[in-house]
Every structure is written in structure tokens, then in C-alpha cells.
Input
Amino acid sequence: MKKRFALCAIIIALLSLVSVASAGAPIRVVTSVAVMANLIEEIGGDQVIVNYLVTGNQCSLHYEPTTRDMITVMWADMWLGVGAGLDRWIDNIIKATGNNNITLVDASKNITLMEDVDPHIWLDPNIAIQMAENIAAALSQAKPSKAEYFQQNLDGFVLEVTNVCSKYESLFAELDDKNVVSCSGTFSYLFPAFDFNEVFVIQPIHGQEASPRAIVQAMEIIKDQNIKAIVGDAELPYAANVIAQDTNIMPLLLRSGEGNLDNLDNYIGLLEYNLRQIANIYVD
Output
């Protein structure tokens, strides 16, 4: 990382004469993960240009910046991070780029979070709405003349999220069995939002190594409590598939939206996809 920081310093010196964006230009926003970029685009519309740093199957908690990432941060007007400890590395990156004019915004500000839980907080749609509200406030402060536009986009987003949630809440309301076992804590914010009970998590924090003892314990719980599904990440399905096969249950493979959204298009698509996968197994 030190070599990248040094290279970035050279690039800053070479490009220091390039003029900054004019007041009427879109706000250049950089964030950590794909789904956060989409939330910003949903609210900011044509008033923002958004880039995100963590791509593919990278773990956001252990992210290392590329030279391209450093340049992206260097020219950004605003950093709009997830917060909750997910992207705390940004402070060192901004310091290395020398971008003293960047506005720093934590989208988890004033949101009540769970302690010692994996920070994929946007998977709770109620929190996603609060994050969108914080995004709208930050963009409105940066561009007061567009505050009404941002509010209209926020209202539309909230309506879409509410409609999707209402649809699945009615499906889940009559379920007697809402117990799940998870391979990792990635989805620990999703299940409580719909009154599901995550009775055991093999790997509570994404990126930690799962112990053999925890895997055995999970399999025992699955058999003893007749758990219907083992939850895993659709991007990294191996563990869930193996446990499902060994315990004769279904793998419930969900998407986090961290590294990419692929064919899901946006946050609404991500939310709908995950809830549909849950319904496919738990709703008869």
C-alpha cells in the first residue's frame, strides 16, 4: 500500500494544475460498495457521478486500494461511506491523496446499530431508508438548489422499498417456522427486519475464518431443530452447498450487493431477490 500511496503523490503533483469541477457540474461522489453507489444514484440522479472502490469478491473490511482507486478519491467532491465500521480505511486513503476539499459523510450517522454484528447494514430495508435520508441530506447541503429534486427521488425510493416489504411481510406473517442457520453474518441485518430468527452463525463477521467446531455445531443445530435452510452468499456458495448436502436441507443463497449488483440492477432488485429466495423455501 505504501508504494501505491507514493505513486499517488506523484500523480497529484503532475495533475495539480487541472481545474476543479464547476459549481453547476454533478457532484463527484465516491463510496465503498456497489449497493451504496446505487443508493446514491437513486437519490442523486443526474446531479451525481458515483464511483465505488470494492469490486468483485473483495471483502470490504480488508480492502486494499489500487492506483486507479487513489485517483478516483483524489478528484472526488464527496466521500459518502456506509459507515458502521465497514469502510474505516478511507481516512488513510484520503490523507494519502491530499484531497483536503473532500466532504466526508457517514451514511450510518444517527442510525441505531447492533453490537458486534457484520456491518452489511443496508440489507435491513428500514436502515436502507435511513441511509437514503442521510444521503439526501448530504447532497442537499452540497447543492441546496437541488434539495427538492433529491427529496422527490428519496420519496420515490421509500415508496418502492415499502411496497416490496409489504408484499413479503404478508407472505411471512403466518409462518410458524422462521429459524435459519447462516454460514456468515453477512445477512444478520436482513433476517430480524422480517422477524426471522438466526439461531446460529458459523462465521459472525464476514472475512473471518470459520472454525471446524463451529461447522459441526451448526450441523447439529440444523438436525436437532429441523432447520429448513442453511444461509450462504450466492457469490461464495461452497460452504452452504456442502453443509446443505450433508444435512439434507436446502441452501438459501442470498446476495449482499457488496462487490456488484450484476443483473439485479438496483437496491430494489437486490431486496426483491433476497426476499423471493427466502419465500421460495419458507412459504409453501
